[in-house]
Amino acid sequence: ENLFRKYYKFISQTDTEVIVRLIENQQKSSRDISEAIRKAFKKLSGRNTIIILTKEGQIIAVRNGSPLVLGFSKDKKEIYFSSDTLSFAPHVDRTITLDNNQMAIYSNQKISIKDVNTGKNIALNTEENKTQDKVTTKERFKHFMLKEIYEQPQVIQQVIQQNKKGLMSLANQIEKSRNVFCIGSGTAGAAASQIAYYLRVFGKINAIGLIGAECSEYLNLLNKNDLIIVPSQSGETADVLEIIEKAKKKGVKIASYVNMPGSLMTKMSNFAFMSNAGPEICVMSTKVFVSQICFGYLLSKLIQKKYQEGINNLKKLAVAAEDVLKNKKKINQIKKLAQRLISDQHIFLLGKGQNLQIIKEGMIKIIEGSYRHAHAIPAGDLKHYAITLMEAGVPVIVVTSEDKVKNDVINAVNEVQARGAEIIFLPELPNLKEVSAILNIIPLQLLAYYMADYLGNNVDKPRNIAKSVTVK
């Protein structure tokens, strides 16, 4: 409105044009274009990261919220600006990840960094590009999603290699904490709740799983004796970052488990862990989800004082996962099921206990990839609402493990079957007891993949969603 009053004309309703006009206005009282951009940026509210190319060939980039990374080639002749390191990984050997309210100015083949608030220069501290040798091709696979599903046995092995000393430090903090809140969004939200489940069951910890955008009411309840654990692929999820920024001001300790190096989430953490799962290109997360819940399981076993048992169970899981992915009979069963389900508009999943968040993640994958409605039903809650939807032909995918709640799930299956619903069990998998739920996610991931593929959808880039949600 202020710009309108100054007779600026707009040809669109985009934020981009407003920012450009604001910079033009600030140029009238600034010594150069970089100063005008700095002043304009200080007037913006919300999360904004912008890059401006001037007619003189300058590139000026400013960060607040959304990620901003610079990459430098070995000979220093090429400089890249991006939201993540993977986009330029093969071409650079050094990087800089800008913090909020920092700006990078490229002029006359030189880079300088400034503090947006003060205008003072900041030292150029580059870091080694650790993603340079990461393979970002599909190789023999049709889609990145399928490749990443097949990489999961190796990802589990990476969790086994996590530094025990670092894990012990976090475990000690967990045991000292009044409450532990595990927070994530989307697939990471399901992972956060599964981590909380493992901490409750094996570590006997008061752990609570929360969705990033839905936990603001907990802020007033937090204090310095609490701990937040945040699993994230990108480490740049806007709604989660907002919560931990506010929590840190109250003295809350932060632990993160992130896949992308150099993230803001990692920098904000008291306990920072990298999943080292390798590039995950498909928007639908698969291998990083498995890495996150394996990490939570191992952490809980350490607190239980049964760390080696946890390691051994994860080793068995890695072997079993590879066997399942090599089993053509089981894969063909999943393909046939996918062909059967693509004609359905509504798909239900039923589970309990260690499989509750697994069916939720299965639901997420089916929705993301097939654009079909899916609903994960806690088996014990079936009679309270969802049983009204059960009728002839309704597909219900049942996920169970050989554990103490299996009979509860079977009882729910009987209720559903009595109303004519079509009961679908996953292909039979090895009984891995404590970690069987982690193995159960693989058939659900494959089911979602083949449904998306058979429907002709864009598997690696489903409509309307992004790999990293950096705005609220």
TrEMBL record:
Gene Ontology BP, a term: fructose 6-phosphate metabolic process
Gene3D superfamilies: Glucose-6-phosphate isomerase like protein, domain 1, Glutamine Phosphoribosylpyrophosphate, subunit 1, domain 1
Entry keywords, A to Z: Aminotransferase, Glutamine amidotransferase, Repeat, Transferase
Superkingdom of source: Bacteria
Reactions catalysed, as given in the entry: D-fructose 6-phosphate + L-glutamine = D-glucosamine 6-phosphate + L-glutamate
Coiled coil segments of this chain: none
Glutamine amidotransferase type-2 domain residues: 1-109
Entry's Gene Ontology molecular function annotations: carbohydrate derivative binding; glutamine-fructose-6-phosphate transaminase (isomerizing) activity
Keyword Transferase: yes
Enzyme class, first EC level, given as a word: transferase
Pfam families tied to this protein: SIS
Domain SIS intervals: 170-309, 337-462
UniProt cross-references to InterPro entries, sorted A to Z: GATase_2_dom, GlmS/AgaS_SIS, GlmS/FrlB_SIS, Ntn_hydrolases_N, SIS_dom, SIS_dom_sf
Enzyme Commission number(s) from the entry: 2.6.1.16
SUPFAM superfamilies listed in its UniProt record: N-terminal nucleophile aminohydrolases (Ntn hydrolases), SIS domain
Keyword Transmembrane helix in record: no
Protein's recorded name: Glutamine--fructose-6-phosphate aminotransferase [isomerizing]
Organism of derivation: Candidatus Woesebacteria bacterium CG_4_10_14_0_2_um_filter_44_9
